[in-house]
Amino acid sequence: MEIIYSMVAFFQKGGLFMYPILIVFAVGMAIAVERWVQLNLIRQRNRKMWGQVQPLLAEGDFDQAREMTNDDKSTIAQMLSMGLARQGAVRRREDIEIAMEECMMEIIPQLEKRTPYIALLSNIATLLGLLGTIMGLIEAFTAVANANPAEKADLLSASISVAMNTTAFGLMAAIPLLLLHAKLTSTTGQIVDSLEMASVKALNSISNSSKRQFPAG
């Protein structure tokens, strides 16, 4: 309980700027949690879908793979569906690759959406903390100017201590948001890498199947 009382006292001493910092932190955490849940769901669905469709691609059963990807809503299924649709129509590797790259250009912004706001909110929390400290120092020096000379040192040190609370709280809010932003960016990169790997493997399977059906010479 003492820790809670200390936190409450720390927050109350910081002044009005503690509230916007808290709001910024709460918004940033809400976005981070939502993105974390979504990215993990996307990754799990992609892994499940790839585990089902990879054997079909390796066997050259593109009709079954096409039907499976059309019925699935995962990002990897969307990408493979575009490529397999071209495979059934033209069979040219370049056209299939372009189709999957076009789909990737639509998928990547969906994976990255709202994540940059976390870094932005982290910077805002830091700046609000600094602004709160500066405003607190201005008030402190104004109050000290009219104070009794014997009390100036004590009053100034107490006022500066209170003013620094906003900077400390701003950094306490900003650091976790920055770490979460880095983790989400890394997770997004891993998903994109897995999609690119699946694209290359699918293209290789299609090319190998075409060579078996239409051998050179």
TrEMBL record:
Keyword Ribosomal protein on entry: no
BP-aspect Gene Ontology terms: protein import
Main location class: membrane
Domain called MotA/TolQ/ExbB proton channel: residue spans: 74-197
Membrane-topology descriptor: Multi-pass membrane protein
Pfam families: MotA_ExbB (PF01618)
Keyword Membrane belongs to the record: yes
GO CC terms: plasma membrane
Residue stretches spanning the membrane: 16-37, 117-138, 158-180
Record key words, sorted: Cell membrane, Membrane, Protein transport, Transmembrane, Transmembrane helix, Transport
InterPro entries: ExbB/TolQ_transport, MotA_ExbB_proton_chnl
Location(s) in or outside the cell: Cell membrane; Membrane
Annotated family: Belongs to the exbB/tolQ family.
Name assigned to this protein: Outer membrane transport energization protein ExbB
